[in-house]
């Protein structure tokens, strides 16, 4: 197939070259029709909204007396949140609007397009697809407008930014550069490399122009080759899979586990390497999963170069780990070995350091996940991760599983090489091995120069591995749910290490922050400004704007700023545009004001950027740059930009959250707002960032800290306000000035650590639960819904449901109180503003309300808006309204509640993109005029006692821990309650199958004790009664038999007696026919002797066992059912077989009784381990029953199969003899293969069922 695909590819390439013109035409037609269809879909949505609105307005208004109020209600339906909807009165007054306003009151007339026609509406920051229509109500004509944002002009590196860009969407979807001009008068491009086509509205009128880059032949050929390479890669992969499937039968027929494992590993490694060389799956999957920045490691030549490659590698390692564990476990339990010599034992000691090194490798892998990735697992408090983080969480879980399962496999190997055997007591070996592992772990830890983990994590991990190893080899045996346990342990320690190394990374990030702060010097800032100004100055569209006076230059400035490094680094900065006379046309500034006019002595005479430094001291950096914009030597205007870098103004303290960057390079690990920064200049505290000012003693402590002589840095712990802070100090020199930078971050509280742990464990638990459900459905027929299971679920349901409900209730209470606190805080600030304004107006009669509002904003440092009617007349943050990032119109919800419902105050949510904030509105009167005052928490930072984030941390962490404890204790209690019942159930089942020797060992108290003691007494009485009844029945049977035999014997004896008497009489009388008579008498006697022989045979058959119910049964099932009877006995019973089904012809009840008798005999011989091994040898099944009991004395070994022979006081001597008789009746054999003080082995051979 692969050569064929290569030939086909070459043919396609040749055809493409020869028919490129036709192909190009088809591609352009496809692009044009596809983009047009996409646009028409957007247009249709708008038209359907308009139609729905008109219908709803006509219907609702016909039943309403308050038309304007109904207008507002309908437009603010949640279904229309994505649209800007307005209703204008016949005179053009805006009377109703939705949550966002696209067309203001003075923008309706003249109509921009005919009624009912869609068109593109250009606003300073956004393009809308819009439509204006009319509705007729009571002979009045109202204007209805519907607008849908189709493309934003700006972009922000911000989690709240909603990227609306139809051009980019088309470019990504069709893999072609697409640009849309929203002007209906734009002419098609004349560039031969591009193609333009018109966008038509609902009435087939041109409203815009789409320009795309024409596909090139080279790009098309490369695309064909890439697709062909992808197909060939898949074919190679499928070929490898089919090769593996084809060799599956031969692989299974192999006997040697070493050879099987070696071949398996070789195949898996080869497949993974080939996949890596073919660049699968990165070649097929694009996006964050294949992005190396999200995770990349140099391990194995970059085989884990992205999250998806990491996942594929882990998948293959999981397969190897599972096989390694399985084979070593089989080797541990099922293989008999000779005496281990000193050399093998010494060689096995190498496994101890190997186990410790694997633990270190585990820590190194998790460290790589933290340090070799830009992903931050604990920075944000969000519980549910995005898809990329979800994939990495799965990787982390798989790493933990791989390491734990491999460690257990190594431990299995270690134990076997040191003489572990299921036929003996291994307690001493286990204790010595476990202690040795601890000792070597400690030695390697303390001998290591740089241990990756602390001693506590090491001890916990080693202890967990030991406990899991003990649980699996001693208690759980072959349970498939052992893998769930391994996953759970791997998850716990992978998360622990993740949190541990994240803490280290956070500590290292303090050092990074200190170096970054000192890296930002005058040269770097000038570089930033030069790049930004030159980039803005080369924008052709911006250059053509300098000659226009109708543009919003503030919005243009914001657009340029939003796409620059100034926004990305959240710097206090500005950008301003000036006309050719140096007068400002517009600007956007955050934390640094721009000049209203450029002084003539500072106007550059060339097109180079001129810089000015207005810093007041050596550690401040207030730099601005100006560049002349000219065309053909004629000055058109100027562009100026500036940056103010000051420690006290870090973290965008003056930049609102809705435009703040989330990509700042200053510290991507810890939220910089959590840091406390202190800058010392020549031994004096010069700048402080944060809400903590150090005391004199704390300053002295920081200055006197001994620093490293090489790197001039150091660490210390310092207490601020009762909290311990980790602090990093860095000393640098600048122009002879000594500068010490101190960066501090608070140690995490216990609740945060709990939250971080359970946040990841919650995701891991979902994966584990999915595996558990899969295993459950696979084994659903084998799972018994036991009393223990039912009572456990009952405990969990009764315990966890109230905890969850309590957590939800507490969360709701906190949320309500948080809203109440915000409401009270905003109301209080509104009180301050209202009082301040009213006081000014009262004292200064000539002062208007706008001037009073400006004074109140400046003096109170409170940001607010003032409305007269529905129009805004003042705002403390005017720049965001000038650029129309925020609507000037009164919030529609507030308008409805204050105007129509006559409320005096109202609080609602407002939105900027996806940033949601609270806004408080209040009506008040000043000099007989009604005003509305609004204060929000977007511009006013509000501190509440407990934020919802902090409460989420506490609730999720503490309650998750509580749920974990509930699960643990519920399991323990359910086991304690159900264990006696389970023992009683199994014992009753054994009694039902004829085993009356069962006795329940227990330490129960109360009613359970009485129940179990009563059962034991019952079985003893049943045993005694059985013996007595058997004796009575035997005696009675023999008496009856004697009568029957006597009667039957008399019948032939009578004719024999008569015949003999007749023969004697004839002899005495010398009868002439004596010879003839002799023959006759002889025949008669012989006939009667035959009758007597027949009677003896019938009696012999009567003395045999009852008749057997022979049927086809599964030997494996019978043995498993029998083993389950003894599940609560203090004995470990192991079934060793590779056979899935062993069909024989036998009586299942008799076979079960036979195995019960063998197991009971072993238990009575003090055995604690019993191995039942079943193998198929040609047409027979060979069963070996081996125990580690006291064995059978040599002098009685020949008598054990004799009827009525027993060594037990109350025994009947029928067990082994009946077993032998039963086996022989089904054409099998039984023999004592070996017996000693170390144990006994019986060998049974049963013919396999031959299908006809």
From TrEMBL:
Keyword Ribosomal protein recorded: no
Residue ranges of domain HAMP in the record: 975-1027
Transmembrane spans: 229-247, 259-278, 298-325, 346-370, 390-415, 427-447, 453-473, 480-501, 757-778, 790-809, 953-974
Protein source organism: Ignavibacterium album (strain DSM 19864 / JCM 16511 / NBRC 101810 / Mat9-16)
Membrane topology: Multi-pass membrane protein
Domain of life: Bacteria
Entry GO CC: plasma membrane
Domain Histidine kinase: 1044-1250
Enzyme class: transferase
Protein name, entry field: histidine kinase
Catalytic activity: ATP + protein L-histidine = ADP + protein N-phospho-L-histidine
InterPro entries in UniProt: HAMP_dom (IPR003660), HATPase_C_sf (IPR036890), HATPase_dom (IPR003594), His_kinase_dom (IPR005467), HisK_dim/P_dom (IPR003661), HisK_dim/P_sf (IPR036097), HssS/ArlS-like (IPR050398), Sig_transdc_His_kin-like_C (IPR004358)
GO molecular function: ATP binding; phosphorelay sensor kinase activity
Localisation: Cell membrane
Signal peptide (from-to): none
EC assignment: 2.7.13.3
Entries under SUPFAM superfamilies matching the protein: ATPase domain of HSP90 chaperone/DNA topoisomerase II/histidine kinase, HAMP domain-like, Homodimeric domain of signal transducing histidine kinase
Keyword entries, A-Z: ATP-binding, Cell membrane, Kinase, Membrane, Nucleotide-binding, Phosphoprotein, Transferase, Transmembrane, Transmembrane helix, Two-component regulatory system
Coiled-coil portions: none
